[in-house]
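Researcher: We're teaching a course module on how sequence relates to structure. For the next exercise, students receive a sequence and then see the predicted structure as tokens, so they can try to spot secondary structure elements on their own. Here is the exercise chain.
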Amino acid sequence: MPKHSRRLLSGIGLVCALALTATACGGSDDGGSSQKPVSQDDVRAALEKGGTITVWAWEPTLEKVAADFEKKHPGVKVNLVNAGTNNDQYTALQNAVSAKKGVPDVAQIEYYAMGQYALTKQLTDLTAFGAGKLSAKFSPGPWNGVKAGSDGIWALPMDSGPMALFYNKKVFDKYDIEVPTTWAEYLDAARALHKADPKAYITADTGDAGLTTSMLWQAGSRPYTVNGTKVRIDFSDRGAKTYTDTWQKLIDEKLLTSVNPWTDEWYKGLGDGTIATLATGAWMPANLASGVKEAAGDWRAAPLPQWTAGGRASAENGGSALALPELGKNEALAYAFVEYANAGDGVGTRLEGGAFPATTAELQSTAFQDTAFPYFGGQKANKIFAESAADVADDWAYLPYQVYANSVFNDTAGKAYVSGTPLAEGLKSWQEASVKYGEEQGFTVEK
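Model: And here is the predicted structure for the students to work with:
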């Protein structure tokens, strides 16, 4: 997952606002496919006939995948378009759908945004193509993401972001700090580090919706319940309290540095040791290697700290899929490309290009797990990432309008990082804002 895929979205008109009764969009609240099944013979026939498909995606490894696909199927032309990352592409896609003109045949969509497109039936349900048979190919988190809480299959997973703790071993060794295995130990490590060097912090966190939902996910919180246009939002469960109790101490004791991610200052902190850890997705190594070259050999990966000693719980942070917009053309040909890219030979091509897989075969393969990372001093970090992927609970749900909810995070929960507002109260404010918006858009929201 490229770095930009975790930035908050803002200013989007939102797909849900177009037609929030699912029946108005050509379906029912139950999800599932009413399409006529499409056989593999139909797909093969489309490949033999050839034609052009347009793919909107920002993921860089798809360029080689598209070239290989064209080489394998000479009659096919893949028009790969970077319509912008997340926010920009979603806006462009929404505009095309509204105008019913220029809609791509394939679109890259992140898991957290999948629900809004699925609910309004703006994506083709891939169940009709027999996509259900591929479920065992993918790890639980990404597969749950493309189902978007329904009976349909709205995309095929392209990558994933099982979480790990990336830490600066040089800094930890210098101050004789043990790598934390629990979040309580993480808090102790934060205290020890900042006491040893007042300029050093355990991590940078200015408030991020993606990180917050991932941490809640790992803690066992399930704030969102979604059943079609009926949703429930509740940040008061035990898992949420477990998370806020610890994170509030980090905030109160000023153990987090207020440096925004992906800025020059952030990269500098990662390089000079003043930012000592990152809890994020397994797509991070490539960003460290390219953006923090001066610290090569200093960093390592470790399992995500646990909320309960001895536990084995993880979460996803990032990741996206390839979907077929309902108004796109050449569906059989488009599906053939998506299956090739995400469940066929294209997977190996993307791994060679530095992508992180969503497929269990690759995650469990000896070749993948034995890959040594020069940046991490030769560490075989993929073993940690693969175990994390297997430990992700598959019952997490995002709101059908998570894009909007994330865009107002800093105006609500994020205030806890810049004022005296308790984090638990900030989450309550986020809940209220999300409830209000959902009701305005026609959702039935249970408080």
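Model: If you want an answer key for the exercise: The chain has 18 helices and 13 strands. The CA atoms of residues 223 and 236 lie 8 Å apart.
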